[in-house]
Amino acid sequence: MVKPYLSDFSTGLANDARSPTAADGRARPCASRAGRWDPGQVRYLGHWPELLADLALLGRVWIETEQPGVRSAQRRPLSGLRVHGMLGYLDTPEYQVRLLLDQCHALRSVNDEQGLAIEDRSEQPLVSIRLEAGAQPLPLRLLLCSLGAYGQRVAPAPHRYEGPRIAAFEHHAVRRLQCDCQALEPEPGCLGLGFRDVAELSGRLSLNPWPARQATESADDHGNERAVAVDPALVTCVLETLVDQVHPLVVIGGSNGWISRSIQQFYAHVYLDGQLSLRGDEARIDLDVRAIDSAWVVGERAGGVDRRSLRLYDENGRAMAVLASAAAPRDFAGGMETGLATNPRFCRGDARLWTTLMNALTS
Protein backbone atom coordinates (compact mmCIF):
# COMPACT_ATOMS: atom_id res chain seq x y z
CA MET A 1 0.00 0.00 0.00
CA VAL A 2 1.25 3.45 -0.84
CA LYS A 3 2.30 5.46 2.17
CA PRO A 4 0.16 8.62 2.59
CA TYR A 5 1.85 12.02 2.65
CA LEU A 6 0.73 12.83 6.16
CA SER A 7 2.10 9.70 7.79
CA ASP A 8 5.21 11.81 8.47
CA PHE A 9 4.23 15.30 9.62
CA SER A 10 7.82 16.42 10.03
CA THR A 11 8.51 15.77 6.36
CA GLY A 12 5.33 17.61 5.43
CA LEU A 13 6.28 20.67 7.44
CA ALA A 14 9.75 20.64 5.97
CA ASN A 15 8.31 20.69 2.46
CA ASP A 16 6.79 24.09 3.16
CA ALA A 17 9.91 25.51 4.75
CA ARG A 18 12.57 24.67 2.19
CA SER A 19 13.06 23.31 -1.27
CA PRO A 20 14.31 19.72 -1.51
CA THR A 21 17.67 19.29 -3.13
CA ALA A 22 18.88 16.62 -5.48
CA ALA A 23 21.08 15.22 -2.74
CA ASP A 24 18.20 14.11 -0.53
CA GLY A 25 16.50 12.19 -3.34
CA ARG A 26 13.23 14.07 -3.07
CA ALA A 27 13.82 16.86 -5.59
CA ARG A 28 10.80 18.10 -7.49
CA PRO A 29 10.54 20.36 -10.56
CA CYS A 30 9.98 24.12 -10.36
CA ALA A 31 11.99 24.82 -7.21
CA SER A 32 13.49 28.29 -7.02
CA ARG A 33 17.15 28.87 -6.24
CA ALA A 34 16.28 30.59 -2.97
CA GLY A 35 14.41 27.56 -1.69
CA ARG A 36 11.02 29.27 -1.95
CA TRP A 37 8.21 28.75 -4.45
CA ASP A 38 7.18 31.67 -6.63
CA PRO A 39 3.49 32.67 -6.29
CA GLY A 40 1.32 30.72 -8.68
CA GLN A 41 4.15 28.47 -9.77
CA VAL A 42 3.30 24.82 -10.41
CA ARG A 43 5.06 22.29 -8.24
CA TYR A 44 5.00 18.52 -8.89
CA LEU A 45 4.60 16.12 -6.02
CA GLY A 46 3.60 12.49 -5.59
CA HIS A 47 0.70 10.80 -7.38
CA TRP A 48 -3.10 11.05 -7.32
CA PRO A 49 -3.73 7.82 -5.33
CA GLU A 50 -1.82 9.16 -2.32
CA LEU A 51 -3.47 12.57 -2.53
CA LEU A 52 -6.98 11.11 -2.73
CA ALA A 53 -6.27 8.90 0.27
CA ASP A 54 -5.23 11.96 2.29
CA LEU A 55 -8.62 13.64 1.74
CA ALA A 56 -10.08 11.23 4.31
CA LEU A 57 -8.27 13.24 7.00
CA LEU A 58 -10.58 16.21 6.43
CA GLY A 59 -13.73 14.47 7.71
CA ARG A 60 -17.07 15.83 6.50
CA VAL A 61 -16.59 18.58 3.93
CA TRP A 62 -18.63 20.59 1.46
CA ILE A 63 -18.04 19.28 -2.07
CA GLU A 64 -18.87 21.85 -4.74
CA THR A 65 -19.10 21.32 -8.51
CA GLU A 66 -20.26 23.49 -11.37
CA GLN A 67 -21.03 23.23 -15.06
CA PRO A 68 -22.98 25.59 -17.33
CA GLY A 69 -26.47 25.92 -15.91
CA VAL A 70 -25.95 23.92 -12.71
CA ARG A 71 -24.12 24.50 -9.42
CA SER A 72 -24.28 21.97 -6.61
CA ALA A 73 -22.82 21.46 -3.16
CA GLN A 74 -23.16 18.54 -0.78
CA ARG A 75 -21.71 17.71 2.60
CA ARG A 76 -20.01 14.31 2.72
CA PRO A 77 -16.87 12.59 4.03
CA LEU A 78 -14.36 11.54 1.37
CA SER A 79 -12.84 8.57 3.14
CA GLY A 80 -12.37 5.56 0.90
CA LEU A 81 -11.38 7.27 -2.35
CA ARG A 82 -9.38 4.81 -4.45
CA VAL A 83 -8.08 4.52 -8.01
CA HIS A 84 -8.97 2.00 -10.69
CA GLY A 85 -7.45 2.49 -14.12
CA MET A 86 -7.94 6.15 -14.97
CA LEU A 87 -10.79 6.66 -12.48
CA GLY A 88 -10.78 7.73 -8.88
CA TYR A 89 -13.83 6.19 -7.23
CA LEU A 90 -15.81 6.10 -4.01
CA ASP A 91 -18.76 3.78 -3.42
CA THR A 92 -21.01 4.03 -0.37
CA PRO A 93 -24.77 3.35 -0.09
CA GLU A 94 -25.66 7.06 -0.22
CA TYR A 95 -22.73 8.59 -2.09
CA GLN A 96 -20.73 7.54 -5.14
CA VAL A 97 -17.98 9.39 -6.99
CA ARG A 98 -16.14 8.96 -10.28
CA LEU A 99 -13.10 11.24 -10.71
CA LEU A 100 -11.68 11.35 -14.25
CA LEU A 101 -7.95 11.48 -13.63
CA ASP A 102 -7.12 12.34 -17.23
CA GLN A 103 -8.93 15.66 -16.62
CA CYS A 104 -7.14 16.42 -13.35
CA HIS A 105 -3.99 18.51 -13.55
CA ALA A 106 -3.37 20.49 -10.37
CA LEU A 107 -4.52 21.26 -6.86
CA ARG A 108 -4.57 24.63 -5.11
CA SER A 109 -5.80 26.11 -1.85
CA VAL A 110 -8.95 28.27 -1.89
CA ASN A 111 -10.93 30.45 0.53
CA ASP A 112 -7.86 31.58 2.48
CA GLU A 113 -6.67 28.03 3.04
CA GLN A 114 -10.14 26.93 4.20
CA GLY A 115 -10.48 24.57 1.27
CA LEU A 116 -8.84 23.17 -1.83
CA ALA A 117 -9.72 22.74 -5.49
CA ILE A 118 -8.76 20.20 -8.14
CA GLU A 119 -8.26 21.93 -11.48
CA ASP A 120 -7.90 20.98 -15.12
CA ARG A 121 -5.14 22.25 -17.43
CA SER A 122 -7.02 25.47 -18.11
CA GLU A 123 -7.06 26.20 -14.35
CA GLN A 124 -10.81 25.70 -14.15
CA PRO A 125 -11.95 23.90 -10.97
CA LEU A 126 -13.33 20.40 -11.44
CA VAL A 127 -14.31 20.19 -7.78
CA SER A 128 -13.87 22.43 -4.73
CA ILE A 129 -13.63 20.94 -1.26
CA ARG A 130 -14.36 23.27 1.64
CA LEU A 131 -14.40 22.76 5.39
CA GLU A 132 -17.81 22.98 7.01
CA ALA A 133 -18.48 25.75 9.49
CA GLY A 134 -16.85 25.15 12.86
CA ALA A 135 -14.62 22.33 11.60
CA GLN A 136 -11.11 21.93 12.94
CA PRO A 137 -8.77 23.49 10.34
CA LEU A 138 -5.61 21.68 11.48
CA PRO A 139 -5.94 18.59 9.21
CA LEU A 140 -6.42 20.78 6.13
CA ARG A 141 -3.49 23.00 7.09
CA LEU A 142 -1.28 19.97 7.54
CA LEU A 143 -2.37 18.59 4.18
CA LEU A 144 -1.69 21.89 2.40
CA CYS A 145 1.60 22.21 4.26
CA SER A 146 2.75 18.75 3.25
CA LEU A 147 2.00 19.59 -0.38
CA GLY A 148 3.46 23.07 -0.29
CA ALA A 149 0.16 24.30 -1.69
CA TYR A 150 -0.05 27.71 0.00
CA GLY A 151 -0.65 30.34 -2.68
CA GLN A 152 0.39 28.10 -5.57
CA ARG A 153 -0.79 25.25 -7.73
CA VAL A 154 0.50 21.76 -7.07
CA ALA A 155 0.45 19.26 -9.93
CA PRO A 156 0.76 15.61 -8.86
CA ALA A 157 2.66 13.37 -11.24
CA PRO A 158 0.41 12.15 -14.08
CA HIS A 159 -1.40 8.94 -13.30
CA ARG A 160 -0.19 6.07 -15.45
CA TYR A 161 -2.30 3.19 -16.67
CA GLU A 162 -0.86 0.05 -15.09
CA GLY A 163 -3.17 -2.57 -16.60
CA PRO A 164 -2.28 -5.11 -19.29
CA ARG A 165 -1.21 -3.91 -22.71
CA ILE A 166 -4.21 -3.19 -24.92
CA ALA A 167 -4.89 -2.46 -28.56
CA ALA A 168 -4.68 1.07 -29.92
CA PHE A 169 -8.49 1.35 -30.06
CA GLU A 170 -8.67 0.66 -26.35
CA HIS A 171 -6.53 3.75 -25.69
CA HIS A 172 -9.30 6.02 -26.98
CA ALA A 173 -10.45 8.19 -24.06
CA VAL A 174 -14.13 7.25 -24.29
CA ARG A 175 -13.42 3.53 -24.74
CA ARG A 176 -11.01 3.54 -21.82
CA LEU A 177 -13.58 5.36 -19.68
CA GLN A 178 -16.18 2.78 -20.66
CA CYS A 179 -13.92 -0.12 -19.61
CA ASP A 180 -13.10 1.48 -16.25
CA CYS A 181 -16.76 2.32 -15.55
CA GLN A 182 -17.91 -1.18 -16.43
CA ALA A 183 -15.36 -2.67 -14.04
CA LEU A 184 -16.83 -0.57 -11.22
CA GLU A 185 -20.52 -0.94 -12.04
CA PRO A 186 -22.66 -2.54 -9.31
CA GLU A 187 -24.10 -6.02 -9.49
CA PRO A 188 -27.20 -6.63 -11.64
CA GLY A 189 -30.31 -5.49 -9.80
CA CYS A 190 -28.50 -2.55 -8.17
CA LEU A 191 -28.49 1.01 -9.42
CA GLY A 192 -25.33 3.06 -9.40
CA LEU A 193 -23.07 5.26 -11.51
CA GLY A 194 -22.81 3.69 -14.95
CA PHE A 195 -20.82 4.61 -18.03
CA ARG A 196 -23.69 6.51 -19.64
CA ASP A 197 -24.15 8.81 -16.64
CA VAL A 198 -20.42 9.50 -16.29
CA ALA A 199 -19.86 10.07 -20.03
CA GLU A 200 -22.87 12.36 -20.57
CA LEU A 201 -22.39 14.44 -17.42
CA SER A 202 -18.65 14.91 -18.06
CA GLY A 203 -19.27 15.98 -21.65
CA ARG A 204 -17.64 12.93 -23.25
CA LEU A 205 -20.91 11.93 -24.93
CA SER A 206 -23.85 14.09 -25.98
CA LEU A 207 -27.53 13.40 -26.49
CA ASN A 208 -28.67 12.20 -29.91
CA PRO A 209 -32.50 12.35 -29.87
CA TRP A 210 -33.07 10.15 -32.91
CA PRO A 211 -31.58 6.94 -31.42
CA ALA A 212 -33.43 7.73 -28.19
CA ARG A 213 -36.76 7.82 -30.01
CA GLN A 214 -35.85 4.64 -31.90
CA ALA A 215 -35.08 2.97 -28.58
CA THR A 216 -38.53 3.92 -27.36
CA GLU A 217 -40.21 2.36 -30.36
CA SER A 218 -38.23 -0.88 -30.09
CA ALA A 219 -38.03 -1.07 -26.29
CA ASP A 220 -40.51 -3.89 -25.96
CA ASP A 221 -38.85 -5.94 -28.72
CA HIS A 222 -35.20 -5.51 -27.80
CA GLY A 223 -35.25 -4.86 -24.05
CA ASN A 224 -33.95 -1.28 -24.35
CA GLU A 225 -34.87 1.43 -21.88
CA ARG A 226 -37.84 3.54 -22.88
CA ALA A 227 -37.03 7.21 -23.47
CA VAL A 228 -39.83 9.77 -23.70
CA ALA A 229 -39.21 13.44 -24.45
CA VAL A 230 -41.15 15.74 -22.10
CA ASP A 231 -41.79 19.48 -21.91
CA PRO A 232 -38.79 21.22 -20.22
CA ALA A 233 -41.14 23.96 -18.98
CA LEU A 234 -42.69 21.42 -16.59
CA VAL A 235 -39.40 20.54 -14.87
CA THR A 236 -39.66 23.42 -12.39
CA CYS A 237 -43.15 22.38 -11.31
CA VAL A 238 -42.08 18.76 -10.86
CA LEU A 239 -39.05 19.65 -8.75
CA GLU A 240 -40.99 22.09 -6.58
CA THR A 241 -43.65 19.44 -5.93
CA LEU A 242 -41.01 16.88 -4.91
CA VAL A 243 -39.35 19.36 -2.57
CA ASP A 244 -42.67 20.39 -1.02
CA GLN A 245 -43.20 16.74 -0.06
CA VAL A 246 -39.53 16.30 1.02
CA HIS A 247 -39.35 13.38 -1.37
CA PRO A 248 -36.02 11.48 -1.26
CA LEU A 249 -34.15 11.92 -4.54
CA VAL A 250 -31.22 10.33 -6.28
CA VAL A 251 -29.19 13.23 -7.69
CA ILE A 252 -26.49 12.61 -10.30
CA GLY A 253 -24.39 15.54 -11.48
CA GLY A 254 -20.96 17.09 -11.44
CA SER A 255 -18.41 18.66 -13.76
CA ASN A 256 -15.97 17.72 -16.52
CA GLY A 257 -13.97 15.58 -14.13
CA TRP A 258 -16.02 14.89 -10.99
CA ILE A 259 -19.32 12.98 -11.26
CA SER A 260 -21.29 12.01 -8.16
CA ARG A 261 -24.46 10.15 -7.29
CA SER A 262 -26.09 10.89 -3.95
CA ILE A 263 -29.35 10.42 -2.06
CA GLN A 264 -30.73 13.75 -0.86
CA GLN A 265 -33.81 15.29 0.70
CA PHE A 266 -34.55 18.95 -0.02
CA TYR A 267 -37.00 20.92 2.09
CA ALA A 268 -36.93 24.42 0.53
CA HIS A 269 -37.02 25.89 -2.96
CA VAL A 270 -36.84 29.39 -4.43
CA TYR A 271 -37.50 30.39 -8.04
CA LEU A 272 -36.31 33.80 -9.22
CA ASP A 273 -35.54 35.07 -12.73
CA GLY A 274 -35.16 31.62 -14.23
CA GLN A 275 -33.01 30.30 -11.38
CA LEU A 276 -34.36 27.44 -9.26
CA SER A 277 -32.60 26.87 -5.94
CA LEU A 278 -33.14 23.70 -3.91
CA ARG A 279 -31.95 23.54 -0.30
CA GLY A 280 -31.48 20.74 2.22
CA ASP A 281 -29.38 20.09 5.30
CA GLU A 282 -26.75 18.18 3.33
CA ALA A 283 -27.05 19.61 -0.19
CA ARG A 284 -27.76 22.65 -2.33
CA ILE A 285 -28.54 22.86 -6.05
CA ASP A 286 -28.84 25.99 -8.19
CA LEU A 287 -30.39 25.21 -11.58
CA ASP A 288 -30.78 27.65 -14.46
CA VAL A 289 -34.00 26.27 -15.92
CA ARG A 290 -33.57 28.50 -18.99
CA ALA A 291 -30.53 26.40 -19.93
CA ILE A 292 -32.61 23.20 -20.16
CA ASP A 293 -33.07 22.51 -23.86
CA SER A 294 -34.65 19.05 -23.53
CA ALA A 295 -35.87 16.74 -20.80
CA TRP A 296 -36.38 12.98 -21.04
CA VAL A 297 -38.02 10.37 -18.85
CA VAL A 298 -35.91 7.24 -19.27
CA GLY A 299 -36.53 3.74 -17.91
CA GLU A 300 -39.34 1.42 -17.01
CA ARG A 301 -41.80 0.76 -14.24
CA ALA A 302 -41.96 -2.93 -13.35
CA GLY A 303 -44.38 -4.09 -10.65
CA GLY A 304 -43.98 -1.88 -7.59
CA VAL A 305 -40.63 -0.47 -8.69
CA ASP A 306 -40.40 2.74 -10.72
CA ARG A 307 -36.91 2.90 -12.22
CA ARG A 308 -37.63 5.90 -14.41
CA SER A 309 -35.24 8.83 -14.24
CA LEU A 310 -35.61 12.44 -15.36
CA ARG A 311 -32.62 13.49 -17.49
CA LEU A 312 -31.97 17.17 -18.28
CA TYR A 313 -29.87 18.32 -21.27
CA ASP A 314 -28.62 21.68 -22.52
CA GLU A 315 -28.65 22.95 -26.10
CA ASN A 316 -25.37 21.17 -26.87
CA GLY A 317 -26.80 17.80 -25.84
CA ARG A 318 -24.76 17.64 -22.65
CA ALA A 319 -26.43 16.19 -19.59
CA MET A 320 -26.96 18.77 -16.85
CA ALA A 321 -28.41 16.46 -14.19
CA VAL A 322 -30.13 13.12 -13.72
CA LEU A 323 -32.84 12.76 -11.09
CA ALA A 324 -34.62 9.65 -9.82
CA SER A 325 -36.59 8.51 -6.80
CA ALA A 326 -34.70 7.03 -3.85
CA ALA A 327 -37.91 5.61 -2.37
CA ALA A 328 -38.06 2.27 -4.18
CA PRO A 329 -39.17 -0.65 -1.97
CA ARG A 330 -36.50 -3.01 -0.69
CA ASP A 331 -38.35 -6.23 -1.46
CA PHE A 332 -38.66 -6.23 -5.25
CA ALA A 333 -37.18 -8.90 -7.58
CA GLY A 334 -38.18 -11.86 -5.51
CA GLY A 335 -37.20 -10.48 -2.14
CA MET A 336 -33.71 -9.31 -3.12
CA GLU A 337 -32.57 -5.98 -1.75
CA THR A 338 -31.63 -3.34 -4.28
CA GLY A 339 -28.39 -2.20 -2.67
CA LEU A 340 -27.43 1.25 -3.91
CA ALA A 341 -30.81 1.71 -5.56
CA THR A 342 -32.70 2.29 -2.33
CA ASN A 343 -32.44 3.61 1.19
CA PRO A 344 -33.89 1.64 4.14
CA ARG A 345 -35.34 4.83 5.65
CA PHE A 346 -37.90 5.08 2.86
CA CYS A 347 -40.93 2.90 2.29
CA ARG A 348 -43.10 1.87 -0.65
CA GLY A 349 -45.62 4.65 -0.07
CA ASP A 350 -42.93 7.30 -0.67
CA ALA A 351 -42.50 6.12 -4.27
CA ARG A 352 -46.08 6.89 -5.33
CA LEU A 353 -45.46 10.61 -5.76
CA TRP A 354 -42.61 10.00 -8.20
CA THR A 355 -44.69 7.55 -10.22
CA THR A 356 -47.58 10.01 -10.40
CA LEU A 357 -45.34 12.83 -11.59
CA MET A 358 -43.55 10.71 -14.21
CA ASN A 359 -46.90 9.47 -15.50
CA ALA A 360 -48.12 13.06 -15.78
CA LEU A 361 -45.00 14.15 -17.67
CA THR A 362 -45.23 11.33 -20.20
CA SER A 363 -49.01 11.35 -20.74
Characterise the protein shown here:
23% of the residues lie in helices and 31% in strands. It is an alpha+beta fold. The chain folds into 2 domains: 9-46 and 54-65 and 106-155, no CATH class; 168-362, HemS/ChuS/ChuX like domains (Heme iron utilization protein-like fold). The strands form 3 sheets. Strands 1-10-7-8-9-2-3-16-15-14 form a 10-stranded mixed β-sheet. The chain has a 9-stranded antiparallel β-sheet with strand order 4-5-6-13-12-21-20-17-11, with helices on both faces. It has a two-stranded antiparallel ribbon with strand order 18-19. Helix 1 (9-17) packs across helix 3 (138-147) and helix 4 (173-184) crosses helix 5. The radius of gyration is 22 Å and the shape is globular. The termini are far apart. The relative contact order is 0.14. Residues 1-38, 219-223 and 330-342 have low confidence and may be disordered.
Under CATH at level 1, the class of the largest domain stands as Alpha Beta
Total DSSP helices:
10
The CATH topology of the largest domain turns out to be Heme iron utilization protein-like fold
Query: Mean of residue pLDDT?
Result: 77
Q: Structural class of the helix and strand makeup?
A: alpha+beta
Give the beta-strand count.
21
The spatial strand order of the largest sheet comes to: 1-10-7-8-9-2-3-16-15-14
The gross shape turns out to be: globular
Query: Sheet with the most strands?
Result: 10 strands, mixed
Per DSSP, what share of the residues sits in E-state strands of 2 or more residues?
Answer: 25-35%
Low-confidence stretches: 1-38, 219-223, 330-342
Radius of gyration (CA) equals 22 Å
Tell me the domain tally.
2
Look at the structure and name the CATH superfamily of the largest domain. Answer: HemS/ChuS/ChuX like domains
Distance between the termini: 54 Å
